[in-house]
Amino acid sequence: MCSKMIPMTTIDVNLVMFLLIIPFSVLPVFTVADHLFTFCSNDTGNYTLNSPYERNLKSLLETLPSITSLTGFNYTSVGESPDKVYGQALCRGDVNSNSCQACVEQAGQEIINDCRNYKDAVIWYELCQVHYSFQIMTSMSVYTGKNPEWNSQQKLLSDPQHFSGVLMYLMTSLSSEAAFNPSKLMFATGTIKFRNETVYGHAQCTRDIIPNDCQACLTTALTELKGCCSSREGGIIVSRNCNVRFDLYKYYNGSSYLLTYPSHKGSNWKIGMVALAVCASVVVIVIVIGSCIVCLLKKRGQQRGVERSHQALLKELACPRGVTMTDEGQLVSSEDLPFMDLTTISAATENFSENNMLGEGGCRKSTCTA
Questions:
Q1: Which letter does DSSP use for residue 8 in this model?
Q2: Separation of alpha carbons 218 and 165, rounded Å
Q3: Taking every annotated instance into account, which residue ranges of this chain make up the domain Gnk2-homologous (predicted)?
C-alpha cells in the first residue's frame, strides 16, 4: 500500500509560517522607540557649541552603550575640569545586552538633540535611561520624578479604591526588595492577584547609590505613582536614580514571584464584629437566666417564710412560750403572766375571804348599802 504525496502550495507555506510566528507574537516585544520623557535642566547653565564640554559630552555618549550593555549599568566621566562631563546609563534589569546597547545608543542621540547647549539632562525610554551632567551625580540627592504622558493614556479602573491598596502593597514590597536585596542588583519584579487580573510591577534604582537612598527615592516615586495612576490599568514614574512601573500584562522578561495581598485586615474586622455580637448575646442570655434564678429563689424564700410562720404558730399553740409546769401539771412559772405562790395569794386575800372578792368593792355584804 502506498501513499500519494500532495504538493505544498504557496498558500500552505504561508499558513505554516503564520502558525510559527503566532507563538512569538504574544511574547513581550522590546523596542527602543518607546520614548517616555526628556528633562533638560534650565538652572545648571549652558555649554557653548563646539566647545571642549560638547566634545567631551559626545565622546561620553559614544562610549556609554557598549560599556553599559555588559552589566546593565555604567557610571563614568570624560575630560578634565572645568569641562569634565559625568555620564550615567541604566538599562531595565530584564533587558538583554543587545537591547540594552541599542536603547542607550538611541537615547544618547536623542538627548543631545533635545537638550542642546544644556549642561545637565536626563532622558528615559521604556528599556533604558541616560543622564549626563557637569557635576558628580552621586552627590545629587534631589528627587526629580517625572510623570510621563504615557500614563494618561491608560484605561481607568472600575474599583480604584480597592485596587490602590493591592497595588501599593505590591510596589512597596518590590521597593524593599530592590533596595535591600543585594542579589537583585537593585531591580525587583513581582505580581499580585486582583480579582480576575494579575498585576505586574517592577522597582529599580541606579547602582551608584546606597540602599537607604534607593528606598527613599522609591518611596517618593510610589507616592506619585499612587496619585497619578492607582485608578488606571498601568502607570510609570521615572527619576534620576529610580523608577517604578506596573501594568495588567507582563511587560518585562523573566520570572517574578507572586505576592498575596493580606486580606486579614478586613477579616479581623468581620471576626471582631461577629465575636462582639456573640458576646453580647451571651451576656443578655446570662442576665435573663440570672434574673429568673433570683426571682425563683426569692419566691421560694417567701414560701418558706410563710411555712415557717405557720409552723411557729402551731408550735406556740402546742407549747406556749415561757411556761414551766411540774410533772403533775401544776404551773410553776410563765414569762407572759406574773407568777405568785399559794401562800402569798392566801395572805393577800385573807385566806380567800369573801370580803376581798373581786367585784365586791372591798366591803362586806352585811355592811354595804345599795
A1: P
A2: 17
A3: 35-137, 143-251
Give me the torsion for CA of 304, 309, 311, 315, rounded to 10°.
150
Nearest to 211 by CA among 182, 169, 238, 245: 182
Grid cell 518611596 is found at 219
Bridge partners of residue 205, in order along the sequence:
242
Between the alpha carbon of residue 25 and those of residues 31, 64, 120, 268, the distances in Å are 13, 31, 39, 45
Q: Model's pTM, two decimal places?
A: 0.65
Record the cell numbers describing residue 288, joined without a space: 435573663
Q: How far apart are CA 274 and CA 23, in angstroms?
A: 51
Cα dihedral: 111, 113, 114, 120 (round 10): 50
**Per-residue pLDDT tens over the stretch 235-257:** 999 999 999 999 999 999 988 88
CA angle 294, 298, 302 (to 5 degrees): 170
Q: Angle 211-229/160-180 helices, nearest 10 degrees?
A: 160
**What pLDDT digit, counting tens, does each position of 306-340 carry?**
555 556 544 554 555 555 555 555 555 555 555 56
Element containing residue 187 per DSSP (H, E): strand 187-194
How is 86-122 classified by DSSP, letter by letter?
A: EEEEEE-TT--HHHHHHHHHHHHHHHHHHTTTBSEEE
Q: Select from 139, 140, 103 the least CA-distant residue to 123.
A: 103
Please, what are the domains in the chain?
Answer: 30-138 (3.30.430.20), 149-265 (3.30.430.20), 323-353 (no CATH)
Helix H or strand E encompassing 331: strand 331-334
Contact call for residues 245 and 201 (beta carbons, < 8 A): yes
Q: By three-state DSSP, how is residue 370 classified?
A: coil
* H or E stretch covering 15: helix 10-25
